[in-house]
Structure to design on (758 residues):
């Protein structure tokens, strides 16, 4: 155990902090809405130029071209979080599609799609889930049939975030209807402006349309816009699902949330007494603090494994399940501490923190379900992690 | 930056584990539980021969000068085997003597602990909270009063006693005026007693430190070691549950193929795995003298108590009826975890302390 940083990394930390102090005035503000707001794009450009975004992506594809260094990436994330400054653009194009193309895309695909995606000029949405294919994603039915030089797509996707803003979609479709279910899927890329695509907003329990349904009627996509070979889409998609699961359940986010709740409990009063002075609420806060600290320590343990290029094993497999659950419980404590005031969810002077605790509490439930439900996570932990046997397949009907 | 055990630390833990495989199989644990004091002495001798009691002692007193993280790894192995061992008491006594003793007192007592001349029991319960009006007063004619839940008085040569003012004293177990009544608890792998003091001669550790400061330091290490003991015990219970779920068949299937059962195993894993990192970090923070170390020790103790309780109950359930029997012996781990939960303070008390330490109260 040695949690200190070597002089090289301490110097790097100072370097990052200096950059932030010099440039933070140029960072996008929360009021800069719109995914292509000029300030967001300019900030992204500045971050890439200095190696704080797209850090390890080769220069040839518009990245900074640094050698992968998990510790440096972590220092960057910590320093930007400490300053409350945006670490640049996120979204499924940058976090999921780009790593997939780097691994499995053709040279032409890398050239065409990675640079504009990194610059924030090309926004992507993910077409995976369908009404009949959720946890059992491989049973998806949206079909793509070959007609001349094109695939012709018919079917429907659901839970598609940012579909209305997106320029492009990466999409799983069934191309080999006679193959076994995992072997008949292909991974296609196409423009959201292709004729035959209809997007309908899907309002969720937070009362925002974070998601959409996307309908395809005879959508024609050139056969060249496939990643991997026909029928290999499942393998291609799994490369990106791994990236998504790593994104959810970030322990540093949980720590920030814990501190915000402690702060809230110092401000909120009941009969004139602060909630932090209420033994029952305080006990809940400390109990959750212990879980947050445990997940943070677990995160450092996982990072050490990754630095040594070892598998983090169970310590890695549990992060999505435990991390999402913990965030959800943190939001619930904040709401309970506010009592009736915690119910407010609209424009009133009594509204606390813009109603964000209620929306987090609800949105977190979405995260517990999305990206592999809690039940699927438990299957993964038990089967891959503990070696328990899989559910026997039901006898064919 | 490296959040992992060193090669030496892994070897230390492996050596304790392989010793326990021979020295503390379940049959031996049962013998100790049935009151065979010879087993306790044998175990204490065996662990001492491995150098465990010297682990936290400085080199000047013939110790190994290792840290609380190393001590926690030993304790985790002991918890994993539900070993009836006096290690916990000797480790805490080392911390107490180092914190409250003058140089001469340290040389004398830690030297004797190194060579195996003395073995300690602990009378600390009332520093955490007194029940039944227990408490020991230091007066001109020695110590008087009573202490409950004294650990390890049956095999110790000496007892480290914390008086009502938070000062530490060392008392020979065969001192005149000292009476011992056994306190039979659920956890027969541990030895608990009531000690009655009537003008008992004692050595007061007399370095110039604030009253309670040394006891507080012992408390911090005690939290970490109890958390480590529970970590080891809970990991064994989880491993046993997984093994059982892979073997046991019902409805022509191994029960581990039912999601109802495999999800219980996954839930135990998801809650317990981060605990390992928390215990490491709390111990490391203590060894580094980090500002947050006192809070981390409290969080580790309270959180392992809660997680251990969950694992103990859930693992027993996965074992079905067999988990409930004496035959399998799973209850030794269940009871060890339940005991660790109360020792040095229940989770509620320890969390209240963590809040105070952070200025949240």
């Amino acid at each position: 155990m040695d949690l200190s940083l070597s002089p090289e990394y301490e110097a790097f930390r100072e370097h990052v902090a200096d950059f932030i102090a010099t440039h933070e005035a140029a960072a996008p503000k929360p009021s800069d809405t719109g995914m292509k707001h000029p300030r967001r794009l300019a900030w992204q450009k500045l971050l890439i130029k200095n190696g704080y975004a797209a850090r390890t992506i080769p220069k040839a594809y518009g990245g900074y071209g640094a050698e992968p260094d998990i510790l440096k990436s972590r220092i960057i994330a910590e320093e930007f979080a400490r300053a409350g400054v945006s670490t640049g653009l996120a979204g499924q194009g940058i976090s999921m599609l780009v790593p997939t193309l780097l691994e499995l895309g053709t040279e032409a695909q890398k050239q065409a799609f990675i640079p504009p995606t990194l610059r924030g000029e090309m926004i992507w949405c993910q077409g995976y889930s369908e009404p009949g294919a959720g946890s059992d994603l491989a049973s998806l039915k949206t079909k793509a049939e070959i007609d001349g030089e094109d695939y012709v797509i018919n079917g429907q996707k659901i839970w598609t975030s940012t579909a209305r803003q997106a320029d492009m979609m990466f999409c799983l479709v069934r191309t080999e209807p006679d193959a076994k279910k995992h072997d008949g899927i292909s991974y296609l890329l196409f423009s959201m402006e292709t004729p035959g695509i209809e997007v309908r907003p899907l309002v969720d329990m937070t009362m925002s349309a974070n998601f959409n349904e996307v309908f395809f009627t005879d959508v024609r996509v050139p056969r060249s816009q496939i990643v991997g070979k026909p029928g290999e889409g499942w393998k291609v998609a799994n490369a990106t699902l791994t990236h998504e699961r790593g994104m959810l359940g970030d322990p540093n986010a949980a720590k920030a949330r814990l501190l915000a709740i402690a702060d809230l409990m110092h401000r909120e009063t009941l009969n004139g007494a602060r909630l932090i002075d209420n033994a029952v609420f305080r006990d809940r806060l400390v109990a959750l603090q212990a879980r947050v600290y445990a997940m943070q320590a677990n995160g450092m343990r996982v990072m050490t494994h990754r630095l040594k290029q070892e598998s983090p094993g169970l310590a890695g497999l549990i992060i999505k399940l435990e991390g999402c659950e913990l965030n959800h419980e943190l939001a619930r404590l904040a709401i309970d501490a506010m009592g009736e005031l915690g119910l407010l969810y609209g424009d009133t002077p009594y509204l606390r923190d813009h109603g964000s605790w209620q929306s987090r509490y609800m949105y977190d439930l979405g995260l517990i379900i999305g990206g592999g439900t809690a039940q699927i996570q438990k299957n993964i932990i038990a089967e891959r992690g503990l070696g328990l046997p899989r559910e026997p397949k039901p006898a064919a009907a | 930056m490296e959040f992992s055990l060193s090669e030496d630390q892994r070897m230390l833990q492996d050596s304790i584990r392989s010793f326990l495989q021979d020295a503390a199989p379940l049959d031996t644990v049962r013998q100790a539980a049935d009151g065979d004091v010879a087993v306790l002495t044998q175990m204490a001798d065996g662990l001492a021969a491995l150098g465990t009691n010297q682990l936290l002692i400085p080199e000047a007193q013939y110790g190994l000068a290792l840290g609380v993280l190393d001590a926690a790894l030993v304790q985790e192995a002991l918890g994993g085997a539900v070993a009836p061992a006096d290690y916990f008491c000797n480790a805490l006594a080392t911390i107490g003597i180092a914190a409250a003793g003058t140089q001469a007192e340290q040389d004398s007592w830690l030297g004797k602990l190194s060579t195996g001349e003395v073995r300690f029991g602990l009378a600390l319960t009332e520093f955490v909270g007194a029940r039944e009006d227990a408490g020991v007063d230091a007066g001109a004619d020695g110590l008087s009063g009573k202490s409950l839940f004294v650990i390890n008085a049956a095999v110790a040569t000496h007892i480290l006693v914390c008086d009502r003012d938070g000062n530490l004293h060392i008392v020979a177990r065969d001192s005149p005026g000292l009476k011992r009544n056994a306190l039979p608890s659920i956890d027969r792998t541990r030895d608990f007693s009531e000690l009655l003091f009537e003008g008992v001669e004692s050595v007061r550790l007399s370095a110039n430190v604030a009253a309670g400061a040394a006891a507080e330091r012992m408390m911090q290490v005690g939290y970490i070691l109890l958390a480590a003991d529970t970590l080891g015990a809970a990991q064994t219970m989880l491993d046993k549950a997984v093994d059982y779920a892979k073997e046991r068949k019902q409805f022509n299937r191994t029960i581990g193929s039912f999601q109802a059962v495999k999800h219980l195993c996954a839930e135990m894993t998801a809650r317990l795995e981060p605990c390992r990192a928390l215990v490491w970090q709390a111990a490391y923070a203590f060894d580094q003298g980090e500002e947050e170390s006192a809070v981390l020790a409290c969080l580790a103790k309270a959180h392992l108590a809660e997680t251990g309780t969950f694992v103990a109950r859930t693992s027993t359930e996965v074992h079905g009826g067999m988990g409930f029997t004496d035959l399998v012996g799973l209850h030794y781990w269940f009871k060890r975890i339940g005991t660790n939960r109360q020792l040095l303070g229940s989770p509620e008390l320890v969390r209240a302390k963590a809040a105070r330490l952070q200025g949240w109260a």
